[in-house]
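Journal club prep — side note

Before the paper discussion, L.F. wants everyone to see what a predicted structure for a comparable chain looks like in token form. Sequence:
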Amino acid sequence: MKEEYDFTEAKRGMFHASARLKPSTDRTRNVWEGPDGPLGRFILAESRKTLNAYREQPHLVTEHANQEYDTAHGAYAHRQLYELVQNGADALTHPGTGQSILIRLTRRFLYCADDGKPIDEDDVKGLMFAHMSSERGTCEIGRYGRGFKSLLGVTDAPEFYSRSGAMRFDRDRAAEQIRRVLERAERCPALRLPAPIDSDAAAADDADLQELMTWATNVVRLRLEAKGFDDLEAQIREFPPEFLLFVPHVRYLTLESPDETREFMLQKVGDELKLLKA
């Protein structure tokens, strides 16, 4: 990723807005699969299966809703940033991927971008279900899995954009769908019925997302609830950069908020790892 930026006029490091993006010579680089692509069709099919399961076994609705609540308000509360950075680190474990993770907090959204492996069908299942993480190797912390449910502590509509396809979870939409098959359903889960979405259409109305999509392969975007901003700002301020020492395949970590940017780089010197702060 670093070679794509011209930092000669940057003042705050590699992700600063004044850094000029160099035009890519790879015409396929910025292609993001639309909602009608293979992964989009898979997302629709899995959501239909889940609705059918709810129709046949209504108790699953309550069980799934309780699992999500316990995760978002229990042991995983106030860990959203850590979970997102972990997931980004896991996406970077695969050969041929990049080395960078960027967290960006604005008043409207939180973004987590990486240039790792695009998501696949196993990853979608890991996002939809509580104990179906697509962890594939000992160097992975646990790709997506249960920690993704913690995002419900700051948003009701998490979105996942990947070059292979994109999806949106939405609490209100999920409840509406579930109550079409179970009219008396009370508490409904929010993260079991994703819908495929158009990455390019979303980026057209969001300059930050558009910029991140020029280099990233995966971007999580969270539309924040009123209380979410302050909590996430504190998480950015307190995030331990020593995390990079446990994931040496991640070279760059940038944490941006409206008032502060924290940038870290991992450098290997001989047999030692050094953590540098920009």
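L.F.'s comment for the group: Residues 31-277 form a domain with the Heat Shock Protein 90 fold (CATH 3.30.565.10). Keep this in mind when we get to the figures.
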